[in-house]
Design goal:
Elements: E1 5-6, H1 18-31, H2 41-60, E2 71-74, H3 77-88, E3 93-98, H4 103-114, E4 118-123, H5 133-139, E5 144-150, H6 162-172, E6 175-179, H7 191-194, E7 198-202, E8 214-218, H8 256-272, H9 274-293, E9 298-301, E10 312-317, H10 322-333, E11 335-336, E12 338-340, H11 345-351, E13 358-362, H12 369-388
């Protein structure tokens, strides 16, 4: 494992900062009880940790509601996106989204349309991988309830103009949801400045928390209903699920040890500084792109490294399917990448890489220049096999 070069950080950040692991172990050892269900000291401490994590994330995303209880924890961004889509949409509503979305948006929209609950339209991107906010404006109808957009593409690495899209939604009077799974912890996210009503985040990517953490942040005056019902630990005699935050979005026992790790991960990101983390990752991304451009058999997709991009690079080697290239990188060079369609099939359709997909390299804060040099050398090795054959 010590020899592994890990370049799959867009899937999950690895390794985690040691302080995150230490915090989780210490919390579970000292306060691993059910939070808020009883009045004894350990339960109170566990509940206070949850409140602290909510306060931190509410500030981190600059929620204009300034109410930390409107941070609702979930297993991941996929669960949060389901809560958002199903929680705000009603029969007959229309939703606007994009072809760059992850299946965590595409599939709920498709399932709800197949069930006859909603209709939806997907706005495409230009040749560089960017969505025109005016195309979103043009897709909005009188019955449009929600616009939901992927802030940063896990395939193309492109970052959408969240503020411009938010301005369109505010002008049109529709709810605006933003999926920041790829951008949270990498670039500042500002719900207030961007007019974001609902935000979905995951904890295990650039927020440096563990898997099984994430959630939604709900802005002021956003009507959203519960989509799950169960235990809350308070008002147990009430037959209906509680209709106030955070219980609107939460049921049962929280993943307290995971949230403790997420809280420490966000603190670690702030300690390092988002600008410093991003500069490190984008410098390495530039080095990777420039190295891959020197290999004639390698084709790159939407390869940029300015402030409009994430540290994500998709590529293929002529004559090889992405699975073959990824296997060679893994077996022969101990390089971990992501292969295939990356759970975003329509984004691949936009760049002509369906059905086989691409090899995705995604840089994290613990990668080094030596890792990038090894990745370029590995791709050159694959390309040399093509030349020999």
């Amino acid at each position: 494992m010590s020899d592994l070069i890990y370049l799959d950080n867009a899937a999950t950040a690895f390794p985690k900062p040691p302080v995150v692991i230490d915090t989780m172990a210490g919390f579970y050892r000292d306060y691993g009880v059910n939070p808020g269900r009883s009045g004894y000291d350990l339960a109170v401490e566990a509940g206070l940790m949850l409140d602290g994590a909510r306060r931190l994330l509410d500030r981190f995303f600059n929620n204009p509601a300034q109410d930390f209880n409107r941070v609702c924890f979930a297993l991941n961004a996929s669960a949060a996106l389901n809560m958002i889509i199903q929680g705000v949409c009603h029969p007959g509503d229309h939703v606007v989204s994009t072809t760059l979305e992850h299946n965590s948006v595409l599939r709920p929209l498709y399932e709800m349309e197949q069930a006859g609950i909603i209709t939806h339209d997907l706005v495409g991107c230009d040749g560089d991988g960017f969505v025109d906010p005016q195309d979103i404006a043009a897709a909005i109808r009188p019955e449009t309830r929600l616009v939901i957009v992927n802030h940063g593409s896990n395939v193309l690495g492109t970052i959408q103009d969240a503020a411009a899209i938010g301005a369109v939604c505010r002008e049109k009077g529709v709810l605006y949801a933003l999926d920041v799974a790829q951008t949270a912890g990498m670039i500042p996210v500002d719900m207030a400045a961007w007019n974001v009503d609902l935000l979905a985040f995951t904890g295990h990517k650039s927020l440096m928390g563990p898997t099984g953490t994430g959630g939604m942040v709900v802005g002021p005056d956003v009507p959203i209903r519960s989509t799950r019902w169960g235990g809350t630990g308070v008002k147990s005699a009430v037959r209906t699920h509680l209709d106030y935050f955070p219980y609107v979005g939460e049921v049962g026992t929280a993943n307290t040890v995971g949230i403790a790790g997420l809280k420490r991960g966000v603190e670690w990101v702030e300690e390092q500084g988002l600008d410093a983390i991003r500069k490190h990752e984008m410098d390495l991304t530039r080095k990777l792109i420039e190295g891959l451009r020197e290999i004639p058999e390698v084709k790159l997709y939407c390869d940029g490294w300015d402030d409009r991009y994430l540290p994500v690079v998709c590529a293929n080697v002529e004559g090889f399917e992405s699975m073959q290239t990824g296997e060679i990188l893994d077996v022969e060079h101990d390089i971990a990448t992501r292969i295939g369609l990356h759970c975003a099939p329509l984004a691949h359709a936009e760049i002509g890489t369906t059905p086989k997909g691409t090899v995705r390299f995604s840089v994290g804060p613990f990668n080094t220049a030596e890792h990038i040099e090894a990745a370029v050398a590995g791709m050159a090795d694959v390309a040399s096999m093509r030349r020999v054959s």
